[in-house]
Structures are given as structure tokens and as C-alpha cells.
Amino acid sequence: MLITSMTFVIALYIFMLAAFTGYVVISRVPSILHTPLMSGSNFIHGIVVVGALSVLISATTIPEQVIGFFGVLFGAGNVMGGYVVTDRMLAMFRPSTKKPAQKAQDGKA
Amino acid sequence: MNVIDYIIGLSGLLASGLFIYGLKGMSSPVTAVRGIVIAGWGMAFVVAVAFLQAFNVSDEVLPHLPVNLGLAVLALLLGGLWAGWKGKTVEMTAMPQMVALFNGMGGGSAAAISAVAMLRHTEVDALHLGVTMAGGLIGCISFTGSLIAWAKLDGRMRNPIRFSGQQIFNLVVFVGTVGLGLMAVMTQMQGSPDAGLFSLLFFAGALFFGLCMTVPIGGADMPVVISLYNAFTGLAVGLEGYVMADPALMIAGMVVGSAGTLLTVLMAKAMNRSIANVLFSNFGASSGAAAAGPQGQMKSVDPADAATTMRYDSSVIIIPGYGLAVAQAQQKLYELVKMLQAAGVDVKFAIHPVAGRMPGHMNVLLAEAGVPYDMIYDMDDINDSFKTTDVALVIGANDVVNPSARTDKSSPIYGMPILNADQAKQVFVIKRGQGTGYSGVQNPLFFLPNTAMVFGDAQAVLSKMVEALKALGTN
């Protein structure tokens, strides 16, 4: 595929908007969720496995196949591991059951 | 563009939308589980659709297609099952190193994409090649750097490796690697066969630099480093997304890149360090010299007496540190808290941003023990409450309650935001011995007139406290 200078500029637009999106979404996350958030964002960059898959599927030589295999292997580990640990951690966060009155004042935390 | 290209492109669009929506869901504990599940569906969908590319390959690829598909399925299964199993079984205390490991794998995957792109010799555009190399460099650093971070946090590599002239050495390695990358790009553009060799050397150099950059950093700084490498991997994935002309990778990668950078800055700020300071100054190397702190007498108190005092007071704030998790005493602590609550005591938890081995780690450890998240308060929300609180109970924490950070300009931790435990009417500190914290700095809090030390292993001390309360009954 031919990447022209225009598509490069469009890529920069995408990068800029995505960067602001990440900033805005994360800046509102309370610090009690920072660890699951880090592993959650770790899971999301696991989408790299999709890139590795298309590299491997279109491989034509043995070196390409070997490197592509490890790319998919690592990417799959990133995705699966990131998802499982994030899900496990988030499932543990529970509100008080005994004292519902305390919840109201907790909205700000 | 044919139909399959459209389907793949639109699936990526859907997935990136779901990722952002899912991340947004994580901004509250109430919606967080739903958030990760939604993002998970997006991921499963886009990975499944990626296999449609098999219908779209050039004639040149066709003879290799069955092998490629077999390898792809095998790699997905092996990587997915191994990581899924590790993720299911890992202890919550070991979570930071696990996240580091998974993150490193992502960096390795991004580097692999870059390596194959260089191998193919099909691209000769300078800009495109430059982005490929930049993504490869960052991916490689994240890969080997995260592996070192994992080894350090997992206790497999105890001491930082430092030698004189290390920073110059690292700089030479970095400049050399970038130089090799430029050579690889130039030879590739000229169609010279040397490109392969330069690429190989470039990747070797980049992997080596990741090692060099991480080995001198002490274990205490690893949370910042993991967070930084998380952002690095995101950035590398975003750049490889450009290389592959896949906007889903660009968006997901860059969202994580910027979110991770923000998180890294917040974390470094909470430790009163700049990121450059974490990476390039060998903090802790000479802090043994700072041992000359306040002298005086520490008062010690029996666990049962401390428990009785708390039982008849009206408010207690608990400040847990990593020492609590090391002693595996979170469950016991929550048992004590429930007994105090039953006796009408107002109990809260105050968490310093860097408590535990990564930000928010202590919250996870408390959640695992069953502590409801609405009892847990951030530093900024609770710091003003200490003045009106009867008892501050510090368990396995040290530097984060050290008042020198406010007053003593010569202290290495001066300026670090701390929890104002010293302002409570009474302070109990459960501590193994009289040693100093991570920073090696003596803590004047322990010598204050309103402080009493409860020496002993957290698990043992808390058990004694629980027994003492049981003996008192529930009247």
C-alpha cells in the first residue's frame, strides 16, 4: 500500500484525538481503581495481536512465520492475561452491604 | 477495497469504540466489571474477524496459507491458555509483576510486527520505515525492560546493577541503536542487501538497551517503571497500527499511551520524584548515610491495650502499607475492623497513592479480603480528617506517614505528600522492628509523644487484638 503524505497527516489527527481521549477517560478514574485500570489498559493494547495475526497470515518465508508466530504468541498472552487479571481484580470490589447510609457521602470519593 | 477489507475495517471501528466505552466504565467501581467485559467482547470480535484476512491474501501467500493459519491458531491457543492460567492463579500480592510480564509480551508482539515489516523489503518510503523502526525500538525496550521489572518484583533479581559511567554507557548504547536503525532505513531505501544485517543489529541493540535502562532502577521505583512501559507498549502498538494501516491499533495504542503517561506522571508525583529522576538517578544507593535522624525513646504498647483503646474511642483511621500484605494479615485486619464497627467505632481506611507495589495495589489487596470500597479513602479526601480522629492505626507503612516530608528540608523524602497520621490524637504503629522504611530514612512519627509502637508481626499483633476484643465482649 502506498502511504502518501496526506494519510500521514490523517494518522497524526487520529493519534492526537486518541491521545486526548485516553487522557480524559483516565483522569476521571479514582485512584482506588488504578491497579485494575493499569492492567485494563494493558489488556487494551493487547489488540496488537490483531496486527501480529495479519502479519503471520500473510507470511511467505520461514523467518516471517517464526517471528509472526512469536508475535501472535506474545500478543495472545498480553490479551488473555490482561483480561483475566483485570476481571479478577474488579470482581473483588464490593460496596458495604451493612451500612447503605454511608454510600451517599461516598459519591465524591 | 473489497468486502473483506470493509468488514475488517468496521470491526476495528466497533472494537475501538467498545474499548473506549469500556475504559470509561472503569471510572467507577460500580460499572467497572461491565466495562472490562464490554472491552473483552470487542477484543474477541476483532480477533475472530482478523482471520477473514485468509480470504484476502495475494497469490504469493496462498501456498503458505494452511501453515500460517495453523501457526496462528497454535500461537493464540498457547499464549492465551498459558496467560489465562497464570492470570487465574496468580496471588494478588504478585499482581504487579504479572502485569509487567503481560505488558512486556505486548511490547514483544509490537516489535515482532516491526521486524517482519523490515524483513519484507516491500516498503521504501522513508517516513513509513522511520515509524516502523520507532515502533520497533519502543516495543523492544518495553519487552526486555518489563522482563527485568518482572524479575525484580518477583524477587528473582534482588540488587540493582550499577557501575560507574553507566549513564554514559546507556547513552552510547541508545545512540548506537538509533544509528543502526537509521542505517537500516537508508539501506532499505536503496534496496541494498545490507538492510537485513542492520535491522538485525538494530533489534539486538534495542533489546539490549531495554535491559541496560532498567537494571539500575531499584525495586521501590518499579511501579513507576511498569506504568511507563505500559505507556511505551501502547505507543509502540499505535505506531505499528500506522505501519499496518490499521486505525484500530492506532486508536487503542494511543489511548493507552496517553493514559499510561498520565498515570506514570501521577505516580511519580505521589512519590515526589520526576520521571527523569526515577530513570536516571540511582535513588537509594547512598541513602544509608541519612540514618542520623531523630533520636529518642519509642514508647511501646501491648496489642491488647491498643485494641481496648480503639474499642472505646469513636473514630479510627487505618493506614495499611505493603508490610500488611507481606504478613498476609488483610483478612485478620478486616476481622478486627468488623468487631470495632460492631462496637460502634467509625472505621476508615486511608490509602496513600503509592501504598503497595503499584498505585491502587493496596485497594485490590483490601478488596480481596472483603473490605468494601466505600470504607477506603484517598489521601486527598481524608487528610483533613486526621485532626478530628481519635486513633490512627499504621500497619506496615513507614515513609508515607513520615512527617519529615513536610518539615525537614534535608530529608530525601522532603516534599513527598504524606498521610497526616501524626495529627491524630493517638497513633498506634504496628511494626516488625525498629528499622527504617524503603527510603532508609528514620521516621520522627515513631518518637512523638502521642505515638505508641506495637512491635511484632502484623498477623500476630492483629490476632492478639481480635482476641482482646473478643474477651471484652460486645457490651
TrEMBL record, chain A:
It catalyses: NAD(+) + NADPH + H(+)(in) = NADH + NADP(+) + H(+)(out). It comes from the Bacteria. Keywords: Cell inner membrane, Cell membrane, Membrane, NAD, NADP, Translocase, Transmembrane, Transmembrane helix. It is a multi-pass membrane protein. It is found in: Cell inner membrane. Residues 12-94 form the NAD(P) transhydrogenase alpha subunit C-terminal domain. The chain crosses the membrane at residues 6-26, 38-60, 66-85. It holds the Pfam family PNTB_4TM. The keyword Ligase does not apply. Its main location: membrane. Its EC number is 7.1.1.1. The transhydrogenation between NADH and NADP is coupled to respiration and ATP hydrolysis and functions as a proton pump across the membrane. This is proton-translocating NAD(P)(+) transhydrogenase. It comes from Acetobacter conturbans.
TrEMBL record, chain B:
It is an enzyme of class 7 (translocase). The chain crosses the membrane at residues 6-23, 35-55, 67-85, 97-120, 126-148, 168-189, 195-217, 224-243, 249-268. The keyword Translocase applies. It is a multi-pass membrane protein. Keywords: Cell inner membrane, Cell membrane, Membrane, NAD, NADP, Translocase, Transmembrane, Transmembrane helix. The keyword Hydrolase does not apply. It catalyses: NAD(+) + NADPH + H(+)(in) = NADH + NADP(+) + H(+)(out). Its EC number is 7.1.1.1. InterPro entries: DHS-like_NAD/FAD-binding_dom, NADH_DH_b, PNTB-like. It is found in: Cell inner membrane. Residues 11-467 form the NADP transhydrogenase beta-like domain. It holds the Pfam family PNTB. Belongs to the PNT beta subunit family. The transhydrogenation between NADH and NADP is coupled to respiration and ATP hydrolysis and functions as a proton pump across the membrane. This is NAD(P) transhydrogenase subunit beta. It comes from Acetobacter conturbans. The lineage of its organism: Bacteria, Pseudomonadati, Pseudomonadota, Alphaproteobacteria, Acetobacterales.
